[in-house]
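Task card 7
Instruction: Convert sequence to structure tokens.
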Amino acid sequence: MVENTCRYYQSLQFPDRVFAGVQVQRLGNSSVVYRIGLFRNDQVAPAAQGRFVHVYVDRYSRKPMPLPQSLRAALTPLVRE
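Output:
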């Protein structure tokens, strides 16, 4: 994880039902930018929005590596730029 942010617009508390939505904002060669939305009960506007950037690295060299094809295939339907 090289970057993450979250903006809160309203509180979430028990007994609220919280729904989470995930999008892929960008699918790079070795990184993925995810967007997250948290929604309170049946509200259309998010209670919180965040984003995080995940860079895939080789376990031993610690250098960026290409996304595995199986992961790229799973994430491609979630891309919303």
